[in-house]
Design brief:
Chain lengths: 349, 349
DNA sequence: TTGTAGGCGTTATCAC
DNA sequence: GTGATAACGCCTACAA
């Protein structure tokens, strides 16, 4: 069996409670005694038994994360940010992937409840409404990190997808593009993709361009889906001058397809993405996109969750992280030569 | 307070022990009673208190994962594979990023021990020897998933980095390249990068090419480091005909730099990577590389760990996952035209 | 300032 | 088949 407090107490020649006090930095213990205990702890390499502590205190310093498709670069960085900030604040992470299936989400939620997690970060986009009612019922502090949740009781941290999509479409329109095609996320995605869609519609309306649903091809945020969506677009709408893929990976797929067809980017068709993943700087042509920081998103999510757990006052439970339009090489003004400069426009925060 | 077994027992009109038996599928309980209990469980939406169970049984169904740089596509897929297979086998995951720092690794190891994890997957490459001695001392089942560990007591699952690197260098040599430059991983990486280096040396020797250490530039597996390493290479060795970056992201960085210098890939310089991430198919030119499946690696790691935990017999505690040379567009034979076909050569495993 | 004792929610060992 | 009851290791009144 492992070393327990009892062993430490015996070695230090004090009682159990004294050991406990020392371990919990209770001030009411003589320095001399504390040192004795510390020495015993080190000598025995004592490690607290977390289960016993949790059982007793009902608080675990454990945060649950339920996500889906976290291998996408943007989300991988989100997870990294979550982990770093959670560690910083003394939480450990228990992580589950739902594959976007409600049953798995539900399942993880139960497991996490059983483990008495202090709070939970949800990154799912499909069945979030069902999830919310479970979470509310369980009374677990929760922060959504994958989109805007209108329910006033629920906290969320997210990029402003509506504004971001608006910005980049406006940019295209101002560059003279009117014949634009779009690659959405999965129709099951009720958050980011829907929000970006709203931003697009808004920008189109203000530029006096008719909204044509048939110009929105469904993708699934992978390279491959961008590639095949591009094929459909080129076949159905040979006159497009610009394509907006709702994330960078799909935009990369688009660019690949266009190259194979000897269609020049940006001379023939401009291509833009969303997210601003690192890769976008290195493909050719470098990708014009809306940049947001997944890492930052993760960090802010934990920050907010921590406040909720500690019942601190929260000014606003809907938080937007900054985004910016980054113009690189994959876009140009209609009937103009390409400019290769990287320009940062419109940095909101 | 939450619903406990006591509440269930009361509602079902049975004793605590009976409830426990039902929950643990003990056969020695009358069907009738079992149903009564089940109903009470559902009615109260009873969830077991995991801490109490762990405290009592000393087994947690929890697997710890300590990694670093997990946002890299290959490793993100590894994590995905780990998660999927762990879930499948009834484990939950507790995940920590060490940033490649020994102190953080050590710290997570302690936290995980306190949580009574059943086993641990280590994906770190720097201080693994120090980690190993701690893990051994803690007597926790462990599987390494980031390289070959020679210690016969330690299990590992990994791609055959030596053979993979050998294969791709041999391929370059057979295509007539003798003037090759290399971009290693960080010198701190004592596993994958070192192993690939060994494979390279072997292939060079067999092709009768002198090993010149100055032709090995240190990178850190990022796009950016590939980009800047390429710059150094072109300046120092203007006559190279091929560059082998030790992972795909760096290879993408190389290709970007070469394009900016109007150096044609593969006509002027062939470029190869390692890992076979999805992206490699979509950049232009598509990347020749050694492909291995991170997902598969994760899956096999959990499979092995599960066996160790259950004290099942293990035939071989060193497992290699398959790799294959995938020839795409970024390489050609010296003094020949590019071929654009994707060819799978040498699928071992 | 320190020690004693009860209980957190389970499981396991006894009896019945 | 079922039911008491004693741990598991820790925290926390309360007592000293």
């Amino acid at each position: 069996m492992d070393v327990t407090m009892k062993d430490v107490a015996k070695l230090a020649g004090v009682s159990l409670s004294t050991v406990s006090r020392v371990l919990n930095d209770s001030s009411l213990v003589r320095e001399e005694t504390a040192i004795k205990v510390q020495k015993a702890v080190e000598k025995l390499d004592y490690q607290i038994n977390d289960s016993a502590r949790i059982l007793r205190t009902n608080t675990s310093n454990l945060i649950g994360v339920i996500g889906a498709g976290m291998e996408r670069p943007f989300l991988a960085n989100l997870l990294k940010g979550i982990e770093a900030e959670a560690r910083e604040r003394g939480y450990a992470l228990i992580y589950g992937d739902s594959d976007g299936e409600f049953e798995k989400e539900q399942n993880y939620l139960n497991i996490m409840k059983q483990k008495k997690i202090d709070g939970i970060i949800l990154i799912t986009t499909n069945y979030y409404n069902d999830l919310l009612s479970i979470v509310k019922n369980y009374q677990i502090p929760v922060v959504f990190a994958s989109g805007y949740i209108s329910d006033p009781e629920i906290s969320c941290v997210t990029a402003d997808n509506v504004a971001g999509a608006y910005d980049i479409v406006e940019y295209l329109c101002q560059a003279g593009h009117r014949d634009i095609a779009f690659i959405k996320g999965p129709d099951l995605d009720l958050l980011a993709s829907q929000e970006r869609l709203r931003g697009v519609k808004l920008a189109l309306r203000l530029s006096d361009i008719e909204y044509d649903p048939s110009r929105f091809i469904e993708g699934d945020f992978t390279f491959e889906s961008g590639y095949s969506a591009a094929k459909k677009i080129i076949n159905k709408f040979p006159d497009v001058t610009a394509i907006f893929a709702f994330n960078d990976e799909m935009a990369v797929g688009v660019i690949r397809y266009l190259k194979e067809q000897n269609i020049k980017v940006p001379e023939d068709i401009s291509v833009v993405g969303f997210d601003g993943i690192e890769l976008g700087k290195y493909i050719d042509p470098a990708l014009t996109t809306i940049k947001q920081s997944g890492y930052q998103l993760g960090l802010k999510s934990i920050e907010m969750l921590n406040k909720i757990i500690n019942q601190e006052k929260i000014e606003d439970n809907k938080v937007f992280i900054p985004h910016e339009l980054v113009v690189r090489e994959s876009t140009n003004k209609l009937n103009e030569l390409t400019t290769n400069k990287e320009v940062v426009k419109n940095n909101r925060g």
